[in-house]
Design goal:
By secondary structure, the chain is of the alpha/beta class. 44% of the residues lie in helices and 15% in strands.
């Protein structure tokens, strides 16, 4: 039986680490990323190191065409042979949306909630029926500790991550009787390139006071 894992935002950081970990467990991987060269490199690494099948979908998941391509890839994988199944879904794709709300372009409001809440919800909806019928499956929705506190100039990000956490917790109650685990992962400061466009972050990478930076492998493990 072919076992599959779907990992969005696998170009680097937490998503890439999940893809590596799941491939090491022998799962075939379906990954998404916006930077073609980087995501193709991840796919090549997984194939070479673990001998698994890797399907790549490139682009921004707020683009309906790209999201549709991902849903098609999932459907084709499950239909590839009798017994094939998606056993893991990791909703990790994201962006910071860091700006005061008064200066945000109106269309960015919808894009933030589309990427951080709507796309994960639709992917959950796509894989859950088969997970329920098999009574096996794990969904990880990557939120943030920022979703628990007010953060200046990050109101869209904080609100969307809070919504994703509530979605995950409620979905966990629905899924548990069907043998499926749903987890909201809430990392704090993690050493990834998520903060690459924030000029104030690199100076704090060493950590001080209450600020402690985690590694991606520690978070995923």
């Amino acid at each position: 039986m072919r076992r599959y894992a779907v990992v969005t935002g696998a170009t680097s950081g937490i998503g890439r680490e999940y893809a590596r970990s799941l491939a090491a467990d022998g799962l075939n991987i379906i990954v998404t990323g916006r930077r073609r060269e980087r995501i193709d490199g991840v796919a090549a690494e997984l194939r070479e190191r673990h001998g698994v099948e890797v399907t790549v979908v490139v682009g921004d998941l707020t683009d309906p065409t790209v999201e549709g391509a991902l849903h098609n890839a999932v459907g084709e994988a499950v239909a590839s042979e009798s017994g094939a199944a998606v056993e893991w879904l990791v909703n990790n794709a994201g962006a910071g949306f860091g700006a005061p709300l008064a200066s945000v372009a109106p269309e960015e409001i919808g894009r933030a909630f589309a990427l951080l809440v709507e796309v994960p919800a639709r992917l959950c909806r796509a894989v859950l029926p088969d997970m329920y019928s098999r009574r096996v499956g794990t969904i990880v929705n990557v939120g943030s500790l920022a979703g628990r506190v007010p953060v200046r100039s990050s109101s869209l990000y904080v609100a969307a991550k809070a919504a994703l956490e509530r979605l995950s917790e409620s979905l966990a109650l629905e899924a548990a009787p069907n043998g499926v685990v749903v987890q909201a992962l809430l990392p704090g400061f993690v050493r990834t390139d998520f903060h690459r466009d924030d000029p104030d972050i690199p100076a704090a990478f060493q950590g001080r006071g209450l600020v402690r930076w985690a590694t991606t492998d520690a978070v995923v493990t």
